Amino acid sequence: MCCAAELRGRGSGSLIARSWPLQQARNVGRDFSDHGTRVLIRDRDSKYSGSFDEAFRGEGIRIVKTPVRATVVLPTELAERLAAKAERRGLSVSDLLIEYADDGLKRESSDR
Fold first, then answer.
1. Which H/E stretch holds residue 79?
2. pLDDT tier at 90 (50, 70, 90 boundaries)?
3. Which residues, other chains included, contact 112 with Cβ-Cβ below 8 Å and sequence gap of 6+?
4. Which of 85, 87, 82, 35 shows the shortest CA–CA distance to 61?
5. What is the pLDDT of residues 27-85, one digit of tens each?
6. Interatomic CA distance for residues 32 and 56, integer angstroms
7. What dihedral angle (degrees, nearest 10) is formed by the CA atoms of 35, 62, 50, 29?
8. How far apart are CA 95 and CA 103, in angstroms?
9. Which residues pair with 41 in a beta bridge?
10. Do 40 and 32 touch, CB atoms closer than 8 A?
11. Maximum distance among all alpha carbons in the chain?
């Protein structure tokens, strides 16, 4: 069995540093998929690479990025607003979020 320190000594440390977070994203994506998660909401931070998103997309999970300038809202207040709006429209909260994501994707494609 080979440990990470031995591999680093062989000149592949940067490969391990890049592949480990991606493998963790795959593992989490698989867990999310197994539990029926269909949407991952994340911010637009540059620390997330394209391969990070692809790890989740590969498990059938849609990535929704938060708006660039989101207003500051307490999480409980946001959850209450979403639940109330979903109830008024006869949707589940996850279906409402998917609808928002679809609308955002349509706007992004029409802006190009």
1. helix 75-89
2. very high
3. none
4. 35
5. 888 888 888 888 888 877 777 777 888 888 888 888 888 777 656 666 788 788 888 99
6. 9
7. 0
8. 12
9. 64
10. yes
11. 60
Q: Which amino acid is at 37?
A: T
At 7-31, the pLDDT tens digits run 444 444 555 556 777 788 888 888 8
| Per-domain residue ranges of the chain | 37-68, 71-112
Reported confidence tier of residue 109, pLDDT bands at 50, 70, 90: low
List, in sequence order, every residue forming a beta bridge with 40; answer none if it has no partner. 63
More confident residue, 87 or 50: 87
Q: Determine contact, residues 32/54, Cβ cutoff 8 Å.
A: no
On whether the CB atoms of residues 17 and 1 are closer than 8 A, the answer is: no
CA 68/CA 87 separation, integer angstroms: 27
* CA pair distance 87, 79, nearest whole angstrom: 12
| Amino acid code (one letter) for 78 | L
